[in-house]
Every structure is written in structure tokens, then in C-alpha cells.
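We treat protein structure as text, and this decision shapes the records that our systems exchange. We quote a single record here, exactly as it is kept in our systems:
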Amino acid sequence: MVLRGYVPTSEETLQTLAALRLQSLNSDFSTHAPFPRLEELFPPHVLHARLPPPRRQPPTKCRGARLRAGLLAGGLWGQALAKQRAERDQRLRGRLREEGASTMAAIVEKWKLLQGMGRPEAMAAYVALVREWPGFGSTLFDVDLRTVRPRWGRSGGQPWQRAALTPLSLQSPVGAGPQRLWLGIGAKAVSLYKPGEPEPLDSFCYGRISSFGASDSSTFRLSVEDRDLLFETSQVDEIAQLLNTYLASTGARRLLRPQEPATSPPTSAPTALPQGLCPTAGPWQHRPPVGSFHS
């Protein structure tokens, strides 16, 4: 999960984690020790993020200019453009190699400082660093939040009616448009993260979830109080199974209705889970982990 970028932290910490991994694999630094490839120690996307973004060609406005550009593209001008692209790609690859060598050198320097640390100690230090992130213990899924829509709910003590749409978080509202998020399924809560951000946009303890299930083969529905959250994902079954597992472990599975249609008014108010199942969130450096760290 570290290599795939699912543990958002600083580059300095990522380098320290890589050094601890080397200490665990090879013991003390030695020039004769086998070196794993950098991508087996450090998230590749961090290196790619250092490269300059590709330059966009300005759009051609005039139809005649577009026609001339199309004709030229098949001749000498097209060959020149192809040569420029090849040279640019070569420069980017060279820059990537330089960034990789610099990062590996920094990792090796940190590895040298770990001399005398045994493998169990290195592994414990590695996990201690990773578990500082509040998402430690959760399984993360890449999802696209397709829409957040209101659902039937009780409002102001009146009969069940369509509730008003409210943002996921007053501080970090999630808009109605589709966006890429991490859906974190933990032992005590479900959290939504913006990829790469250490703090969740919002978290829902199981007492706030009234129902969940698959709307279709690629859409997962999560009903939280007065909202239906619809996620596009290829892992609908895995998400549902994991939620069921955690609910069964808390003895609260019977209080949820996975098959309940989200848009039809219920005959009675849903029963909330005991509030003791809601985790208490503090500063993320000191927040206790939940569950186990899944690969």
C-alpha cells in the first residue's frame, strides 16, 4: 500500500520507510548487499510528479490553417514533430533517472544510520511510522463519487419526506459532480479521502449508515442518514463483503438493511447503531489505529 501511494506522507518519511525495509531485508549497509529496484522501495508516482507537465499545443483556429497543418503533418513537418517528441521523451527519461538516483542515494544514507538495528526492530519501526496515519487499518478502494442525492428521511418531527441535501462536511464539502476518491473501510467507520490527503473529507461510523448495497454491477450505494452516496467502482462485491464482515464482528449486522431501496419511504424509522461504535477522532498523529493493515 505504501508503494501504491495509499499512505499519504512526506517524501522524507517515505525515504525512511524505504531505509527500514532495506535494513529488514539485508541487515546493515554493505556495498555487497543486494539492492532491490527503486520501485520496490519507493512509490514511483512521487518521482513522476517531479517531472514538468507536458506542454500543450495551442489549438488551430482557422479551418485553412488546420488543413495546411494536416497536410504538413504527413510530410517533413510531421517528421520534425516526431523527432521533437522523441527528444522530449528522452529528456524526461533522463530526468527521471536522475531523480531516481538522487532518491536512492538519500535512502542509502538513511539506511547507513540504522546500523545495528535487528530485523524485528526495523519491522516494528516501519509499522510504527505507517500507523501514524489515521487511515491505518482500513482497506482503501479507488472509487468515483458519481452523485450525492437526498433520500427519504424524517425532518423536523414530521412524517417521512424527501430530506434536504447537505454537504458531506461543512469544512470540506464534496460536490455533486463525479470525482476520484478513496473509500476507506475500517473496523469502526467508513471514510472518504481525497487521494494523497492524510485527513478524510468525512467519516461515518456504522451508527450513521442506514443501508448499503449494489445498485448495479459497477455502482455501490451507501445511505448515510439523509443522503445516498453512489460510487462507480469495479469492486462492488469486495466493498459489500468487507462491510458485512465488520458489521458481523460488531454484532450490529441485523440493524442494517442492505437490500432496502434507497428511494422508497420506509415504514418506520431506521434503528441507529449504538453510539459507542463511533470512533473518537483526535489529532491524526496520536489517533489510535483500527483493525489491521490490509495489503
